[in-house]
Amino acid sequence: MARKVLGSVKQRIEAVQRVYWAVLGLSLVVIALGLPLGNDGETMAVLDELTAFGSAFEGNRAEIEQSLLKHAKGTGAVALADVQKAIGGDGVPRVTLDAAAPAIEPLAAIDLSTLSKIQALSEPDPSLMIGSARAVETGEALAWRIARATADAKGPVTLETVTLTRKALSEDDVKRELETATTRNQLRAADKTLLAKQTAHQKLADLYESRRKWRATWKVLQRTAEERDEAKAAMDAAQTARDALAARYEQLAKEADAAVAKAVAVKTFGAASGDKHFVVAHAVLKDRDSKAIELDVAAPIDVRPVNVPRITGAELPVTRVTPLWKEIEGGTSAAAIERVSKEFSWHYAYVQAGPIKLGGMTVIQFAPVAFLPLLLVLIRRSRRVASGYNPFDRDAGSLPRVGLGTALNMVVLILLPFVGTVLCGVSLVQLRQVPMIPMLCAIGILWLGITAHISLRDLVDLRDAVRQSHSAPPPAEKAAR
């Protein structure tokens, strides 16, 4: 019976030792799990910044764009009267100005398609490129088109609006527009020259016939005939020149109309101040009968930067100093968030199960809980050993060792579990998670660890006392031998 009880005590001590090793093993596992990995803290800071920026900016993108464009367009407007003054020339009807005619609003380019472009507008003194109309060239281009469109109309026309469009043209298109205006003026001059030559020839022809009827001398008739022929040659030359100009004018006008008709709208213009850019300008006029006349002309614009208000909240100071910035600056905030999320360690990996995220954060949140039942088991088993001890058993001195010594026992039962739990909490904080369970477990581990250490120390003292008391057999046992 004594050996059976002793065996029970020995087994209980061995069971205590097994739980002790389990606590040590679990501590090492939890420390490995909870150890902060990689740059999760920095990555989470970047993700927080991008997420906050994306939610604030994307919801107000349209309003921000309109505000910046409105501010930019407030600068660089051209008075419609300046265009009106440049409209003139022979055969061009008088152009009046509507009293309520608005100024020609400049084009303004804005591109907020990437993080870098948005961030640039958050710097001090940000600017946008605008394109302002050139009044003289626009007026000259309108002149020949107005004359062509109102050839059969009488009376003045009223200029109501001129609007710059984003339909891009080339410099050659604008040169053709002005060449067409020049050719038209030359054609008008050629018409006058031809009329004068025709009149001179007709006078000489009539004079020749008159002198022939009145039987003028042959020398007078010969001289008059020569002058008539010279006038005829001059008239024919003027007619040829006029016809060539008319054909050239018609060709240029058709080419100008075709260029304007096939112009395609673009999103941006002029990468820098002083860049040449040419667009379609749309003009609306009314004749004396209030009939609308709409004309499209090729017009040059002056490109230059104008200051606009800064975009607040787009500075991205944390994101811009990370190595990832060069990779994500050319994309959207959503693409950047997706890319940054791939930089996390397995701590951040999770599977969405309804409203709950199951993954690495779940593991490090609940891993410290395993210490509590182990420490409780260690305490209970340590206290139960004494109940099976028989002091009169002669083999009691063969009880196994318990623990690793007082100092190391404190490390195994208190320090290592506490450190592993704290590391789990630190990793959760880096991932912007509240380490509620690790915090509660840390308190429980300190209490249970100290209690377990005391219980284990008492067990060690008991084992040492038993071994010392059984180091030599009792006198009665020696006599019996």
Tags for this model:
alpha+beta; two-stranded antiparallel sheet; 7-stranded mixed sheet; 481 residues; single chain; 16 helices
Verbal overview:
There is one protein chain. Helix content is 59%, strand content 13%. Strands 1, 2, 3, 4, 5, 6 and 7 form a seven-stranded mixed β-sheet that branches. The protein folds into two domains: 8-37 and 345-464, no CATH class; 75-307, no CATH class. β8 (350-353) and β9 (356-359) form a beta hairpin. The chain has helices at residues 2-34, 40-58, 61-73, 80-86, 115-120, 135-149, 171-213, 218-261, 317-320, 325-328, 333-341, 360-366, 371-384, 406-430, 436-469, 475-480, and strands at 95-97, 107-109, 127-133, 157-169, 264-265, 276-286, 292-307, 350-353, 356-359. The model is unreliable at 1-6 (pLDDT under 50). It contains 16 helices and nine strands. The chain is of the alpha+beta class and 481 residues long.
Question: Short description, anyone?
Answer:
The protein is an alpha+beta fold. It is built from 16 helices and 9 strands.
Number of extended strands: 9
If you compute it from the alpha carbons, what radius of gyration comes out, rounded to the nearest whole angstrom?
A: 50 Å
Give the CA-CA distance, first to last residue. Answer: 22 Å
Number of helices: 16
Main sheet summary = 7 strands, mixed
- Estimate the global geometry from the Cα principal axes: rod-shaped
How many individual domains? Answer: 2
Structural class: alpha+beta
One letter per element, helices H and strands E, the order comes to HHHHEEHEHEHHEEEHHHEEHHHHH
Oligomer: single chain
Overall pLDDT level: 84
- Uncertain spans: 1-6
* Overall helicity: 55-70%
